[in-house]
């Protein structure tokens, strides 16, 4: 399953992203949101995996062509990200999918990893066209979601040994959801590290946890997007 780079409208301008369409030619839309590294081959591969599972997947390039080559560079790029512009890019990606001939349904899902996990929840809280939100160990101090405005159901995937999004941080997040009268289906995988889903990073990848997290993600999106 191979996708292609496309352009879509964003806040009066244009942005780029990687689009992957299922062989069936039709399916619910999913916005795949990058880690702090950028739109790297791993994220494109995840979009292809979603297409193979029957979704129309679009991974927007939030760094406008740049990619990080070290954790220090990635951290600086993440913190330099303009959150308002990024939300507009993600809104543009949602609209692109909803207007695409291959997309079924009136709402799309968002799925993000690391930085993208925080942006997935942020975008879902800002856009009622998001019908399902998946957060993989999301972190970004500038992307604070408006939980009172959140309408989409949320699936959270977390790692027990995560030093960025620790179990204490997850409990705090669950408390914020409860205070807002919202719910999150949270799963923390024992003995796993931050970014355990990234199979290009053998030092943290956990194949068993990744397989289960992928199963939960696909089932959650299918249930809430009507596939």
Note the topology.
Blueprint: E1 4-10, E2 13-20, E3 27-33, H1 41-52, E4 56-60, H2 71-80, H3 83-99, E5 103-113, H4 115-126, E6 130-136, E7 154-159, H5 167-179, E8 184-189, H6 207-225
Parallel strand pairs: 3-4, 3-5, 5-6, 6-7, 7-8
Antiparallel strand pairs: 1-2, 2-4
Share in β-strands: 25-35%
Measured between the Cα atoms of the first and last residue, the distance is 19 Å
Based on the coordinates given, report the CATH architecture: 3-Layer(aba) Sandwich
CATH superfamily annotation: Alpha/Beta hydrolase fold, catalytic domain
Helix-strand category: alpha/beta
Order of helices and strands: EEEHEHHEHEEHEH
- What's the β-strand tally? 8
Count of domain modules: 1
Query: How many distinct helices?
Result: 6
What ranges have pLDDT less than 50 throughout 5 or more consecutive residues?
none
> How many strands, which pairing sense, and closed or not: the largest β-sheet?
8 strands, mixed
**Molecular shape:** globular
Q: CATH class, please? A: Alpha Beta
What would you report as the Rg, rounded to the nearest angstrom? Answer: 16 Å
Q: Tell me the helix content.
A: 25-40%
């Amino acid at each position: 399953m191979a996708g292609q780079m496309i352009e879509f409208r964003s806040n009066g301008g244009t942005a780029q992203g990687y689009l992957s369409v299922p062989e069936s030619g039709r399916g619910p839309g999913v916005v795949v949101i990058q880690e702090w590294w950028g739109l790297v081959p791993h994220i494109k591969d995840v979009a292809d995996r979603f297409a193979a599972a029957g979704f129309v997947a679009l991974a927007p390039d939030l760094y406008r062509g740049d990619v990080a080559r070290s954790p220090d560079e990635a951290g600086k790029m993440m913190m330099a990200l303009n959150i308002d512009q990024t939300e507009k890019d993600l809104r543009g990606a949602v609209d692109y999918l909803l207007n695409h001939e291959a997309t079924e349904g009136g709402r799309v899902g968002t799925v993000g990893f690391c930085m993208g996990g925080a942006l997935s929840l942020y975008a879902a809280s800002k856009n009622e066209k998001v019908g399902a939100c998946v957060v993989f160990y999301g972190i970004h101090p500038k992307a604070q979601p408006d939980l009172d405005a959140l309408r989409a159901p949320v699936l959270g995937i977390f790692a027990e040994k995560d030093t960025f999004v620790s179990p204490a941080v997850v409990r705090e997040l669950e408390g914020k959801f409860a205070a807002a009268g919202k719910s999150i289906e949270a799963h923390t995988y024992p003995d796993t590290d931050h970014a355990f889903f990234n199979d290009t990073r053998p030092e943290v990848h956990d194949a068993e946890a990744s397989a289960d997290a992928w199963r939960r993600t696909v089932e959650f999106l299918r249930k809430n997007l009507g596939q």
